[in-house]
Amino acid sequence: MNPFSSLLSNPNFYYYARQVLTLGMPFKDWIPLYGFADSGERIADLGCGPADILRYTDAHHKPAYYLGIDCSDAYLDSARRRAAATELNAEFLKMDLSLLTHDERVRRSLADTLCGHSITTVLLLGVLHHIPNEAARATLDLVWSAKPVRRIVTSDVIRIPGHRVNNFFCSLDRGEHIRDEKGYDTVFAQTRWQKLTKSWSSPGLSFIKYIHYCCDK
Question: What is the DSSP letter of 129?
Fold first, then answer.
């Protein structure tokens, strides 16, 4: 059990701890990657946590709609405050996405939610490294099946052979399914998403790497 788990469940501690430990998360660089600067986007952020990226959303350049989904009341309350600060057209929904692989009601609820809100882009930010391959594939395929969705973007920490600093920070993460690049590639290769591009980013501490998968229908 990660000794920081209880502290990281506090939204403010989670944000500032990441900022300090990484010398600054690159949220501003991620704004265009995730579609937050596009007024035509209707975004669903699955496992949104406290939605810290909303701290950096420009009140004058923002998506048409944002739906945050998470299982933590504390994180959702924090995310609501972030959305209100930029007058973002947003809603928040409590849902336990860990049940997707074996609970048909949760799968149906998520699919209906994506379609009912005409979601165009789905975000899985820091999600895949928390769930096993089967659950990751099921989640990606369910999103693909939602007709309004055009794109999915993921972002995760990654183990890199020989990169000791990066891999040390991976060991501090609460995720139990952190993969190397081949591992993430394998997950996507077994889904219905085929038009795929990858990109990389780093925080202020450039030894730390994040991998992003952008998939289009």
Answer: G
Q: Which helix (H) or strand (E) holds 166?
A: helix 164-172
Per-residue pLDDT, 3: 52
CA distance 28 to 9: 23
Q: Beta strand pairing status for 121-125 and 195-201?
A: unpaired
CA-angle at 96, arms to 41 and 127, nearest 5°: 60
E strand spans, 30-174: 42-46, 65-70, 90-94, 121-125, 151-157
27: left (phi over 0), alpha (psi -120 to 50) or beta: alpha
- Residue-wise pLDDT tens digits, 56-72: 998 889 999 999 999 99
Predicted structure pTM score:
0.93
For residue 67, the number of C-alpha atoms closer than 13 Å in the C-beta half-sphere is 20
Q: Are 62 and 31 in contact (CB under 8 A)?
A: no
Task: Report d(CA 211, CA 184) in Å as an integer.
Answer: 9
Structure tokens at 200: 């990389």
| Contact between 179 and 185 (Cβ < 8 Å) | no
Two structure tokens written together for 42: 């209707």
